[in-house]
């Protein structure tokens, strides 16, 4: 990229043309390489980190039941736990390369299938909550910044910060007690009405009905971060000269905000959104537990108690892969959004 | 909303989108109300289903594989064992087998089946089904997961005719070998290539009162009534297990009528439900004991010392003094809010045949006597009131509990001053359950909170106190209850293990418990009640096990839900599903419409402002 600058002799920021494909590729490849290295670290870490956990999986499977020492030995062999750690690691790696995440100790199922069955509900919940909190956070954030110091600003920022500091499970339980228990507006848990066997549109509405409270809880707890970043970055833009120019052109205040200030203020916010999306999925654990949502979070929680190593490794790899992927996308999106970076 | 893209749309475009948004919201509002009313008529069948709150996961519905409590409880409704446990007192009672005989040496057991019995698909139940089930487990390691150990003593099993099963055991056994094991239909399972991998979650065939028809990982498990059930068709149409991941939510669901019965309540939840209309809360005698284990000097299977238990505890006098210093009735009152039964030894009164029924215990709470024991044994108190052991070190003991169980910390707060009173210092350490398991297996403790839930036959619970049940040095191998070994106990265990006379066997089991008690290695504090509640406006006449004072859910047998009887008058009114009062739906709808109106109006205003520019 530096070559072009020298060759043309024109400052890069002034070039208003699409970026060269080669530079794009190189940028993307560097970032992808970084992501891949992180992923490999995760895979290695995922195996060894969980082996430090206390608890013998075979003993906990035998917990409270009539299981003889011989039978526990058979189980240990079946699960490959009698092998040295390094050969277990080798087996884990070779399986993983073939896309095999292993077989759960507790559930009589391949880990990939266990995760697959629960990934959908988790994505639905976190996706909905993310969309709602992004929309709400950005909208309130820019309004608050524009009228900073006003009652609207103080009230909205105050409310958001209050929700942000409330423990998720506590807020979830309160909403559950009030809206599901006392008022009976919403179901107390799950993703569908058990035994109702709805189909088509009725099933869709049933899911929506179940989704409302958990999505609301997650949204309430996380939207503050978007609000605050949007507010801060818009406040920074508000003193810029180009806004004076826009006003000088005779634009109404509303339009100055929406057409000029907000698009520029969105830059850091969008990056933040992608960076936090991955974390949201991991953060769904408490919400899933409170609202009995059949997602990945609770599966992980349960696997910890055994410990069910293949499930823990599998969910760890999947959670981490999502975070890494989101960071990678954030890198790419930021470059698209910010013209200065295209030529840097 | 104001993304860079949005700023390029025309005011007209935005207006349209506003309308679409409003229309979508409106549709949702109407639809959501629709769901509420649709489900209230759908389940009003002739025989209503009973909805059970299920807190916990299903690991598998394959009876050979399933080990989690939620799964085995559910499968107990689907498959009968040869012999089961009576609703009245947990004594052995006819199951798939009408009757049985035992040879004098307790090695040959002969079972007679009912010639008219049928599976749920109308195929006859024969002795071949029993033989196939047992042989399948014995021949295939993959099928041993759930019941392998139960069958280890069965040498051969045969079917001389369609209604007779003969088991030859390798060693005498007094406990009935026909209990617990679910018998599966040979005509279904013998055609499956890999029975261990068979999910068994739809189109199933069983012999019990209910048959699994559907399992969805997101929507629970559905069972329908089996009209061929030996004791007659159930009075309800089926059972629906509604999955929950925390018991607070299941309590709310019981209140709103989304479920009809819930178990595993906390004392606080139970107390709160007691006063709720249309709900009956029951405190059934439990199958669990809660205890403090005292490390007697743990040894591994080879007789080598293991772990880091304080050596002073190897003196039985010190252990007995600790037992005398702990007021378990206060713990029961304060920590469990009285929702438990005072304890003697391991086996709770829910199993009257084997419970040690004693009003006065040798080491009952008596701090003065405890102090005297220690004084007489030469453990003198230091200046700080803490006694010193034989090597001159102050007696400071660690008390380990599980961080996930709040009652452990509560009990520590009482126990610390009690032990201080007899000159023993206590430091408490709350750890993750898995860590507690590791530490207790390896003998790395002085005192720790423990507990076991047990089935009606005491053989297994007693067997984990045998010298041969001590683990290997690395913690693998057998399971020991208290890392204790006594030849005297081993002898008593062997006597009860082969005693066919019920009265004598009961006596031996009580004697065995007394030996554990006197060694003061496992101070049983109380038997907690099993707290459950059900919608008495919808179902009644539940049979409890044991009769009148026991549980409905979590029985050793299918009696609880099998006996559920719908209450006719209200079945149409209190139907579950949405569970909401229609008035609230209307208010909710009005709120949604109000919000939509505000949005539409504000968008119109914004749009017209743009038009003016």
TrEMBL record, chain A:
Localization, UniProt: Cell membrane
A Pfam family assignment: BPD_transp_1_N
Keywords linked to the UniProt accession: Cell membrane, Membrane, Transmembrane, Transmembrane helix, Transport
Keyword Transcription regulation: no
One GO process term, biological-process aspect: transmembrane transport
Recorded GO CC terms: plasma membrane
Stated family: Belongs to the binding-protein-dependent transport system permease family.
Protein name according to UniProt: Peptide/nickel transport system permease protein
Species of provenance: Lysinibacter cavernae
UniProtKB/TrEMBL annotation, chain B:
Subcellular location: Cell envelope
Organism per entry: Lysinibacter cavernae
One of the GO biological process terms: peptide transport
Transmembrane segments annotated in the record for this chain: 583-602
UniProt cross-references to InterPro entries, sorted A to Z: Peptide/Ni-bd, SBP_5, SBP_5_dom
SUPFAM superfamilies: Periplasmic binding protein-like II (SSF53850)
GO MF term set: peptide transmembrane transporter activity
Domain Solute-binding protein family: 92-470
Descriptive protein name: Peptide/nickel transport system substrate-binding protein
Short name of one Pfam family: SBP_bac_5
Keywords: Membrane, Signal, Transmembrane, Transmembrane helix, Transport
Family: Belongs to the bacterial solute-binding protein 5 family.
